[in-house]
Predict the structure.
Amino acid sequence: MPGTALYVKPNESVVWSPTANTSGEDANALSAFTVTAYDQVAESTNALAVKVNVSAVNQAPTIASSWIPATNGNRNEFKMISYTDMAEGLNVLDAEDAKTGASKNTMRLRIEQIVDGQEIRIGTTTNAQDATPLVINGSNNVISLGTNVFWKPPAGLTGTFTAFRVTAVDTGNLSSLTMGDVKVQVTGANAAPYMNSANTNPRVYNFGATPQGVPFMVAYDTLKTAFDIRDPDSPYMVFVITSMTQATLKKGTVTMVATTPVNGTNPPGTSVIAPNESVVVFPSVGRIEDGAEIFQVRLFDGETYSDAATGYAVIKADLKVNNQVPTLTSVKNFTNVPKGGNLLFTYSEFRGDPLNTSGSERTNAFDAEENVQTSQTLKFKVKSIPAGNGTLYKLNTNTSTYEVVSAPVEIEPNTSWKWTPNASLVGTVPAFTVVAWDGTSESASPVTVNVEITPT
């Protein structure tokens, strides 16, 4: 009852409460009130000042319910918020600690909850990449003067977001009874993905030599590396197939289709090669071509496609003939070679009828890719010549003389040969071994060419 006289009679007492947030002891004790003596008629002429020692009690700080920084955040980019701006914006107050102006504040702010967004980092740096990722209930969720918070908004979104919630903490570690919401207005348009590889537009990746008609696999990571794909504001990108040329693409059991990209519209899953995915390419049967275009792709980041003129790539392959291995399992014996004589034969005589007409074939040599009715291209490769049995010669057409040859040597169309047995041999003699040879592959196992030598 300030300013009001109060009479205290014997056996009565009074209660005095100090003004809020005031304290003092001994020489600084608080002046509570003054008293005089009163005899029911008059008061004493002298008044006694009563002082009270009041000990200080730490009081909880206070904080506003929410605050939005004056400057907006950018879509998919870290927004830096300083301690000073937050303390001032949230009107942090404390009877004991808050000084005039947040720049002199001894208070702290503690992040209690991440409400929205991709990530929060904290540090004394002004660069988000150098700051430390936030760990709630960890040692780095308390910020103070000189500290910055870096908040990254939800991926690809704009608008006003409640980023995180904080409490004010004083030097006695007493927290505010309520939390303050830090909100951020996020603006900005989506940046389109692009290909950064140095080769000319359109960018081309050639898988190199691939057997015609044989499927091959294309992995997302292969294309990602080849075209050096980038997006300023989105880490997630997919390849979208926009055309296919004389080929079938499959992802698992699903047949892929080409699509026409439209910004803002998601491509069908049957047109997408996403991270950790692969597709199998089946080139059209019979297609043989170097630098054959297989399919084209553009990038998509969930909202925008790479530029139609500069942001597409062509996947190619060198489709080679799928060589089939020739076969040879039988060579008929040469007969009626006299002891001490020579076996003379040409390529045609050695091979016999290339059509393998029953009864006329000397060998059963076969090459699926050889057109024997127009030209014989299959060769024989001599793999070994037993030295103790005889000597093999090839006719040199320039000198009209036979010259000794050693294995390996090829018996080609339009060539002539001579085999001379050792003079003492008679009977069935292994002369040499051969395989069928198409210039790329040879038959599986050598076949022995036997010569029947008759006594003289």
Remarks:
- The chain is about 5% helix and 40% strand.
- The first helix runs from residue 83 to 89.
- The helical segments are 83-89, 220-227, 347-351.
- The longest strand covers residues 289-300.
